[in-house]
């Protein structure tokens, strides 16, 4: 059973050494995952390693062009989240799309 840490606000602390994830952040990455699947037209497993280290750690074969696009979208999502992590504002998918278009 997960508990809320008293000094962390709405951050959920669960079992395991690296399991600290707020509900809003989990929803954000789920939305990013759905967007990437809809853009590429392929279904991928939702593994944290993909969003932490990049799409080259997917166990499914991905074409080079799709990996490039996925990589830029994930990097854009990370940059936007890093800028807004202390605020109550949750980044939107449109912000990620605009930022990823700046990379290409």
Descriptive overview:
α3 packs across α4. By secondary structure, this protein is mainly alpha-helical. A hairpin with a 6-residue loop joins β2 and β3 (20-22). The protein is built from four helices and three strands, in the order βββαααα. The chain has one domain (23-103). It has helices at residues 23-40, 48-53, 64-84, 93-103; strands at 3-4, 11-13, 20-22. A three-stranded antiparallel β-sheet has the order 1-2-3.
Helix-strand layout with pairing:
Layout: E1 3-4, E2 11-13, E3 20-22, H1 23-40, H2 48-53, H3 64-84, H4 93-103
Antiparallel strand pairs: 1-2, 2-3
Helix pairs in contact: 3-4
Quick tags:
single chain, 4 helices, 3-stranded antiparallel sheet, 3 strands, 104 residues, mainly alpha
Q: Terminal Cα separation, in Å?
A: 43 Å
Strand order of the largest sheet: 1-2-3
Q: Write down the secondary-structure element order.
A: EEEHHHH
Q: What composes the largest sheet?
A: 3 strands, antiparallel
Low-confidence stretches: 11-19
Helix/sheet category: mainly alpha
Q: Give the overall pLDDT as a whole number.
A: 75
Classify the helix fraction into a percent range.
40-55%
Question: Could you provide a short overview of the structure?
Answer:
The protein is mainly alpha-helical and 104 residues long.
């Amino acid at each position: 059973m997960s508990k809320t840490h008293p000094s962390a606000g709405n951050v959920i602390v669960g079992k395991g050494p690296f399991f600290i994830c707020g509900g809003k952040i989990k929803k954000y990455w789920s939305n990013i995952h759905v967007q990437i699947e809809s853009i590429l037209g392929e279904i991928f497993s939702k593994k944290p390693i993909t969003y932490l280290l990049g799409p080259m750690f997917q166990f499914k074969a991905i074409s080079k062009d799709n990996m490039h696009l996925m990589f830029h979208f994930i990097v854009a999502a990370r940059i936007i989240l890093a800028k807004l992590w202390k605020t109550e504002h949750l980044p939107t998918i449109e912000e990620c799309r605009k930022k990823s278009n700046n990379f290409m």
